[in-house]
Amino acid sequence: MNKERGKRVGIVGAGNVGATVAYSLAMLGTCHEIILRDNKIEVAKGKALDMSQAAAAVRSHTVVTVAEDISQLTDCDVVVVTAGSPRLPGMSRDDLLMINAKITKEVIQGIAKYSPNAIIIMVSNPLDAMTYVALKESGFDRSRVIGMAGILDSSRMAAFIQEKLGYGGGQIRASVMGGHGDDMVPLPRYSTVAGVPLSDVLTDDEINEIVHRTRHGGAEIVGYLKTGSAYYAPAKSTAIMVEAILKDTKQIHPCAVYLDGEYGYNDVVSGVPVMLGANGAEKIIEVTLDEKEKDMFKNSCASVQELIDSLNNNKFFEGE
Ligand SMILES: NC(=O)c1ccc[n+]([C@@H]2O[C@H](COP(=O)([O-])OP(=O)(O)OC[C@H]3O[C@@H](n4cnc5c(N)ncnc54)[C@H](O)[C@@H]3O)[C@@H](O)[C@H]2O)c1
Ligand SMILES: O=C(O)C[C@H](O)C(=O)O
């Protein structure tokens, strides 16, 4: 972390998610400067001015600026990448693979060049495959390339539990592992309400309904919005990760990371509990899964692997 000047967070893609992350961070005031980078430079400039003024309103010292070119995104401590297309109704996140992989490749090469010490938080979809692309294109250690999805998926599950119960808001700890796809792995066995196991307060049918809704939580919102996907909860979840890194909290959050033997998997990205701190993903926690949970995790990793295979078959990583 740079000690001479305040902490600097870059955000590539100042659309719905990126701008909301920036706003959230500006209100928290943990970093000194937030730099927005988007191809739509005028829009980014307008949003940056608007957010700096909002920061002044709440007496936050954070300033929001714009990088007109990726070469101006220098010496960031953390860079959040939300550049790319969101899905539309009827699409799966995987349908975004090739279009967003190309964008990710381009922006990650710039980040690696101009902010070589940054910790990268990937947001663009399909999340696990884009985190894999970011890792390969940056050449960074795996601890410095982390995908955001698990906090979002767990928060969704918690909200659905609260809705079903009608009580317990703020006291629910929901757990979701695996990739950020339709076969993500919600873990009712590791979910509690004020410390009480979920199975003590809900029936099996109710829990299954919540699991199903969590898996399709992103699509549910796309179905309403029509022109794009969710951004308030995704942005807040991303800001939680940025804060954990900047403040070196060493707290555990579900994040997408490159697995190198953990859970029995290699050379794939998936969502697992991770300790976040100043050095990024400082530790991967291996929780005990029962046979059914292991099977679900296996399926989820296989889906991410298919996307990586598809990139390889398209010679995406060749010539590097
Ligand atoms: N991981 C998650 O849980 C999660 C949650 C929500 C959204 N997402 C994903 O995040 C991405 C962004 O979603 P959104 O709703 O903000 O979309 P958006 O369309 O509102 O914003 C994307 C922005 O990226 C910009 N952009 C495109 N190419 C660029 C480039 N090369 N350099 C700089 N900027 C570029 C666009 O101009 C646009 O402003 C999508 O891929 C979406 O699927 C992931
Ligand atoms: O659903 C999407 O496409 C966006 C994001 O991954 C989400 O879960 O909200």
TrEMBL record:
<feature type="domain" description="Lactate/malate dehydrogenase N-terminal">
    <location>
        <begin position="8"/>
        <end position="147"/>
    </location>
</feature>
<dbReference type="Pfam" id="PF00056">
    <property type="entry name" value="Ldh_1_N"/>
</dbReference>
<feature type="binding site">
    <location>
        <position position="125"/>
    </location>
    <ligand>
        <name>substrate</name>
    </ligand>
</feature>
<dbReference type="InterPro" id="IPR001236">
    <property type="entry name" value="Lactate/malate_DH_N"/>
</dbReference>
<comment type="similarity">
    <text>Belongs to the LDH/MDH superfamily. MDH type 3 family.</text>
</comment>
<dbReference type="InterPro" id="IPR036291">
    <property type="entry name" value="NAD(P)-bd_dom_sf"/>
</dbReference>
<feature type="binding site">
    <location>
        <position position="38"/>
    </location>
    <ligand>
        <name>NAD(+)</name>
    </ligand>
</feature>
<dbReference type="GO" id="GO:0004459">
    <property type="term" value="F:L-lactate dehydrogenase (NAD+) activity"/>
</dbReference>
<dbReference type="InterPro" id="IPR011275">
    <property type="entry name" value="Malate_DH_type3"/>
</dbReference>
<dbReference type="GO" id="GO:0030060">
    <property type="term" value="F:L-malate dehydrogenase (NAD+) activity"/>
</dbReference>
<comment type="function">
    <text>Catalyzes the reversible oxidation of malate to oxaloacetate.</text>
</comment>
<feature type="binding site">
    <location>
        <position position="87"/>
    </location>
    <ligand>
        <name>substrate</name>
    </ligand>
</feature>
<dbReference type="GO" id="GO:0006099">
    <property type="term" value="P:tricarboxylic acid cycle"/>
</dbReference>
<dbReference type="InterPro" id="IPR022383">
    <property type="entry name" value="Lactate/malate_DH_C"/>
</dbReference>
<keyword id="KW-0560">Oxidoreductase</keyword>
<feature type="binding site">
    <location>
        <begin position="13"/>
        <end position="18"/>
    </location>
    <ligand>
        <name>NAD(+)</name>
    </ligand>
</feature>
<dbReference type="InterPro" id="IPR015955">
    <property type="entry name" value="Lactate_DH/Glyco_Ohase_4_C"/>
</dbReference>
<keyword id="KW-0816">Tricarboxylic acid cycle</keyword>
<feature type="binding site">
    <location>
        <position position="156"/>
    </location>
    <ligand>
        <name>substrate</name>
    </ligand>
</feature>
<dbReference type="GO" id="GO:0006089">
    <property type="term" value="P:lactate metabolic process"/>
</dbReference>
<feature type="binding site">
    <location>
        <position position="100"/>
    </location>
    <ligand>
        <name>NAD(+)</name>
    </ligand>
</feature>
<feature type="domain" description="Lactate/malate dehydrogenase C-terminal">
    <location>
        <begin position="152"/>
        <end position="309"/>
    </location>
</feature>
<feature type="active site" description="Proton acceptor">
    <location>
        <position position="180"/>
    </location>
</feature>
<feature type="binding site">
    <location>
        <position position="93"/>
    </location>
    <ligand>
        <name>substrate</name>
    </ligand>
</feature>
<dbReference type="Pfam" id="PF02866">
    <property type="entry name" value="Ldh_1_C"/>
</dbReference>
<feature type="binding site">
    <location>
        <begin position="123"/>
        <end position="125"/>
    </location>
    <ligand>
        <name>NAD(+)</name>
    </ligand>
</feature>
<keyword id="KW-0520">NAD</keyword>
<dbReference type="InterPro" id="IPR001557">
    <property type="entry name" value="L-lactate/malate_DH"/>
</dbReference>
<protein>
    <recommendedName>
        <fullName>Malate dehydrogenase</fullName>
        <ecNumber>1.1.1.37</ecNumber>
    </recommendedName>
</protein>
